[in-house]
Amino acid sequence: MNTNLPKTRQIKLCVSGAAETSHCGPRAYEVAKELGREIARQGASLNTGATTGFPLWAAIGAHEAGGQSIGFSPAASEREHAEAYRLPIDYMDLIIYTGFGYSGRDLILTHSSDAVLFGCGRVGTIHEFVVAFEDNKPIGILQGEWLMDETLTTILDRSNRSHNKVVFDTNPHDLVAKVIALVKKDQVENKMTYSARPMEGEDVVRG
């Protein structure tokens, strides 16, 4: 089978985390920024929920490293985003106004990403994790001074499902590298599966 596949599009990595970070520890700000920087340095673009806290700090880091950042807002317009939800517009190159609130936004955000990386979070982070896990997305869990990595490990242990697309690391550089490797493996497998399908109008020969 031909494995000389064409160059793929830019990988889109989502960073999921808490909008309110008082429980995240004193190093969360710099760790989140470094995660965003590493996403940019390693050639991927950043997707976030266009919110405050951990995702915003990752967007700041990506911006500092010259990367591209796309926000998926729960609001239906820029005005609603800023006035009703009181969410930022800085450090994002593009904001998509989904109009579906937080839970609906989470679905669009994860579906639009090739993989999701999780830092310090709250219940919204758990929601995005469950959606990404159910969709069989590659997942990276950043271990830190917070408890979210332990919470997500408990969910995995009790899921009664295999989780061979989930990786852990305490180092943002290494975690991003691991997740990108998983995404590229997925891309190759998906292209090989797609190339094996008959084209429209092509007869299917059965042995």
Looking at this protein, list some descriptive labels:
single chain, 207 residues, alpha/beta, Rossmann fold, 7-stranded parallel beta sheet, 7 helices, 7 strands
Task: Write up this protein.
Helix 1 crosses helix 2 and helix 4 crosses helix 5. The model has no long low-confidence stretch (mean pLDDT 91). This protein has 207 residues and is an alpha/beta fold. The chain has a single domain, classed as 3-Layer(aba) Sandwich (Rossmann fold). The longest helix is centred in the last third of the chain and has 24 residues. The chain has a seven-stranded parallel β-sheet with strand order 4-3-2-1-5-6-7, sandwiched between helices. The chain is globular, with a radius of gyration of 18 Å. Helices cover 43% and strands 14% of the residues.
